[in-house]
Specification:
alpha+beta; 5 helices; Porin; about 20% helix; globular; single chain
Length: about 290
């Protein structure tokens, strides 16, 4: 299969993953993918939960969401998403979503939707970074990193991916790396013109890289095999229209890590400099004691 067909297949599979099966009014079921980790990828649950909530709203797009990861998801079993229609006002709609597996909630989310309207407009400037065309592909980790991964993780990275990544090089010293990271990313192929879909896809992709930014000052390579990381909560604010099939810049920073938790926040900029979203996440960052 040539590269173009592989990319088309990856995009089709990603869109299929976000296409939930309606079971009843306000009740949906989604399948999972094995990404080589012990649990379901958090971005998948975010994207599917937002898809479920969006399916119950007409004429409005999501402008914010706040979610908590409660239990590990089992990628061998389907996930049921139960939507509560908390509010349908004149301008805003609010939805609560609970993701259920094996009879227990594994995730919950509140999302707010707004009818499009005009208003005051300002934003921070986009950072000055090299364009993605000038940066090497970072979609697959370098061989010296892959060789230390488990067999399942190696098999995952050998497969085609639905997103491309270009890592902006850091100019910090080796002795004190800063808790910041910038990554260009986009879907590998063209997507339908549907704003709700692009926002669901951003929710999916937003779980890449973010929490890991909080361990950069602590030389994570020295903690190999001892570092436990998992998302605890995730918040997103959508400011402007976006396209996931054009390059977006993920500008991440971690103001704090303490109490076995890491916190990171980020701005997402479109290629033309528009700030399209702001994201924040806190996660478990636990170092196992050496035996």
């Amino acid at each position: 299969m040539d590269a173009a067909r592989l990319m088309d297949a990856e995009i089709a599979d990603l869109l299929n993953l976000l296409e939930l099966e309606p079971l009843e009014v306000n009740l949906f079921r989604g399948e999972s993918r094995d990404v080589g980790s012990p649990q379901v990828f958090g971005g998948q649950v975010l994207g599917q939960a937002l898809t479920a909530a969006s399916a119950t709203v007409a004429g409005r797009v999501v402008h914010s969401l706040h979610a908590y990861f409660l239990r590990r998801g089992d990628f061998n079993a389907p996930i049921v998403y139960q939507v509560d229609r908390s509010l349908d006002g004149n301008s805003f709609s609010n939805r609560r979503v609970v993701a259920i597996q094996h009879g227990e909630p594994i995730f919950n989310m509140a999302a707010s939707f707004q009818k499009p309207e005009d208003g005051l407009d300002h934003q921070i400037d986009m950072p000055s970074v090299p364009p993605p065309e000038e940066l090497p592909d970072a979609t697959t980790p370098p061989p010296e990193v892959v060789k230390h991964m488990s067999d399942r993780m190696q098999q995952f990275f050998e497969k085609p991916r639905p997103f491309l990544f270009r890592l902006v090089p850091s100019y910090d010293t080796e002795h004190k790396p800063e808790p910041t990271r910038q990554v260009w990313f986009k879907a590998v192929g063209q997507l339908p013109d549907e704003e709700a879909l692009h926002r669901c896809l951003l929710a999916y992709a937003s779980d890449f890289f973010l929490l890991g930014t909080s361990v950069l000052p602590h030389h994570p390579s020295k903690l190999e095999g001892r570092l436990i990381m998992t998302s605890l909560d995730h918040a997103m604010w959508f400011h402007r229209s976006l396209r996931m099939d054009d390059w977006l810049l993920y500008d991440m920073e971690s103001p704090s890590a303490s109490g076995a938790r890491g916190f990171a926040r980020a701005g997402v900029f479109a290629r033309d400099g528009r700030l399209v979203a702001t994201i924040a996440q806190e996660g478990l960052v636990r170092v196992k004691r050496a035996s």
